[in-house]
Amino acid sequence: MNITLKQFKENLLVYGANVHEWPEDIRQAGLKALETSSEFRALLAEEERFERVLTTRRYEEPSRDLAERIVSASQPKKKKVWPSVVGFFSELVWEFSLPKPALTAFSVSLIFVLILGFAIGFANLIGSVSTEGTQTDLQEFLYYEGEVL
Amino acid sequence: MDTDFSHLDDESLIQQVQQGSHEAFAAMVNRHSNRFYRIAYRLVFNKGDAEDMVQEAFLRLWARPQLWNPGKQAKFTTWFYKVVINLCLDLNKKKKPLDLPEDRELADRKPGQDALLGIHQEQALVDGFIKELPERQQLALNLCFYEGLSNKEAAEILGVKVKALQSLIMRAKTTLKEKVKRHLGGGSI
């Protein structure tokens, strides 16, 4: 099979200057044409120079950690686990293998401490309010007296 | 768990990803991120943007792996090229058109003296010429010439017939050749 100059030129554009990589059905015709004609060889040389210019195109390599970054960005974010009281106690029981009576005693004492704490705090609150009230009454009294005088 | 996925082809790997295997996804990223970065870089002309586009494409794959349908798409890479290319084209539409580099103006003013142009200027010129090509011609050139894909695969990615793809390459190269001759002088090619 023979190939014309026009066909050869088109094949150079489509398949590139490496004739050995052309599709099998046209490769032999291309190589044969190159052996026999200087016109074909000149066309090939021109295409090779053109491709060299094309390959001078700027290119920057990707960052080394690109793949790692993508994989880490795709990892599901861990939910923040808030410690629950029940969870804490069950972990405590499991960790120290506490027997149930011991756990009950510990819980009761903790509740007692909490109640006691609330009671003390509440009593202080009442005390401080009544002091404030006394001070206000005294100011009102003084002001009232001054105006009369 | 340390699973070896190297023996699996892309299609088997993506099926594992579809079943929720993050390790299979990581293997996929390690296997292909550089390849897809290359095409992204050729389209957006910027390292940071190209990396972002590749990351975005892979994250979408991880979020919705069912989008790859083995019945419709023969090869995973063919389908994923489309995903990356579409993201890059969308980004280019959002970005303002870039000004021509100074090197390009210099070459425009002084055709014929171009043997003196340095490699940096030549790179800028070639980039500029390629940017000026119609979008589909750019894609055809990038996929076939720079990525070395077969005409058949490139045609499939672009959704055109092989003949149409070949016509795109021919037009792209003919235009570029004329511009290179005009600006870099006949001696270059």
Q: Which helices and strands, and how do they pair?
A:
The complex is a heterodimer of chains A (149) and B (189).
Chain A: H1 5-15, H2 24-36, H3 38-54, H4 66-74, H5 85-96, H6 100-148
Chain B: H1 10-18, H2 22-44, H3 47-63, H4 76-94, H5 102-109, H6 119-132, H7 135-146, H8 151-158, H9 162-184
Helix pairs in contact in B: 1-2, 2-3, 2-4, 3-4, 4-8, 6-9, 7-8, 7-9, 8-9
Describe this structure in words.
The complex is a heterodimer of chains A (149) and B (189). By secondary structure, chain A is mainly alpha-helical. Helices cover 74% and strands 0% of the residues of chain A. The longest helix of chain A has 49 residues, at 100-148. The model of chain A has no long low-confidence stretch (mean pLDDT 80). By secondary structure, chain B is mainly α. Chain B has helices at residues 10-18, 22-44, 47-63, 76-94, 102-109, 119-132, 135-146, 151-158, 162-184. The termini of chain B are far apart. The chains are: A mainly alpha (149), B mainly alpha (189). Chains A and B meet through helix 1, helix 3 and helix 4 of A and helix 2, helix 3, helix 6 and helix 9 of B.
> Mind telling me the C-alpha Rg of chain A?
47 Å
Q: Largest contact between protein chains?
A: A-B, 25 and 41 residues
Q: How far apart are the first and last residues' alpha carbons of chain B, in Å?
A: 56 Å
Average pLDDT number of chain B: 87
Number of strands of chain B: 0
Give the averaged pLDDT of chain A, no decimals. Answer: 80
